[in-house]
Amino acid sequence: MKLIDSSTEHKILEAAKTEFLEFGLYGARMQNIANRAGINKALLHYYFRNKEKLFDKVFESALERYFSNMDIMSDDRLDFKERVHGLADRFLDFLNEYPQMALFLIKEVSANQILFIEKVDKNLRGNKTLLSALLDAQQKGVVSLENPMVFFVQLISMCTYPFVAKPLFTVIAERNETSWNSDSLTELRASIHSFIDHQLNLA
Amino acid sequence: MKLIDSSTEHKILEAAKTEFLEFGLYGARMQNIANRAGINKALLHYYFRNKEKLFDKVFESALERYFSNMDIMSDDRLDFKERVHGLADRFLDFLNEYPQMALFLIKEVSANQILFIEKVDKNLRGNKTLLSALLDAQQKGVVSLENPMVFFVQLISMCTYPFVAKPLFTVIAERNETSWNSDSLTELRASIHSFIDHQLNLA
DNA sequence: GTCTATAACTCGATAGAC
DNA sequence: GTCTATCGAGTTATAGAC
Question: Which residues of chain A does CATH 1.10.357 include?
Fold first, then answer.
């Protein structure tokens, strides 16, 4: 693990991240990445050999950032329900900061499922994820859910899809003389917390 | 409105639909579409002039199919709550039949929001949509929601994202020795109906 | 390491025969 | 209407000078 990236390499990765997040693997242009980084195309190949390898690096770091939110599921200072609430908040904050991230990950995971499986294993070895924590808590009687997998899917869906489909929701809201903005997001967050409480208290 | 498409034109549209749904506007290849249709590239241009015009036709018919699910919001035989339940079922059935449709629409709407706005107006003139029906019902006191827009977003998210992110959920489920299959979908459906009941009965 | 110049290739589109 | 052949724009990738 290098502590300081060579400045050029770092600039390229930042530029590539911006470009790939916006346009995806096939839509992105090596020329644009070079321009953003303030260098020329040949250097991209000097540092990363080809487009796919460069993309891989970006994809990997995006996945890493995404899964780093799961840390909270192992936080000893919190009880189980607090962890679930905390994770929902983390996801919402994360996607609010990087709104393109959700669609990017979904698009590329769908396009290349095998690459994704490999990388997930790399990122998650040993760490608790939401689903494994839910199954665990269910088995130990900490919570009593109808179906942990369904709860998991619903929760992730409510946290993620609003960002994935933001353009669609914005248009539909405007057509109906209402809006989908940061205030709505605050209210969505509150409603998601109610949902969690309601589901986890069915015990 | 032609009753019988010339066979070639119809074959091209079917082939284009398959290709565009899988790869999107930029990922799709005219050569692949020609191969699927059993003809050659030149004929694609003879019938549809260029790639974008062909895509437009496919996109438009996908949108039309998607919004046709909204019919139920104007069904006089049902009361308001039945309509909402019915619409959720329709969406789940629709996406179960065309699982790639959700991601396709999202990708292309995000990539070309303006085209989408035009086409939405074309598809929706006069018809009730879920959101407009919710706002209406709220105003008339038929239901009493905390925030109709938030409920709308949550409901659509729970119905749609499980299909958008199916590859992701499948992988994560397998990692945890459980599964995400058609049985899970039945249980998801039940849970969504509970959610609707719970939200609409807060009055 | 960084640059310029260009090779090699992909792909949408068109010309023109049948 | 349908085909073969080919053009030309746009892109990734490489050769080679500095």
Answer: 62-200
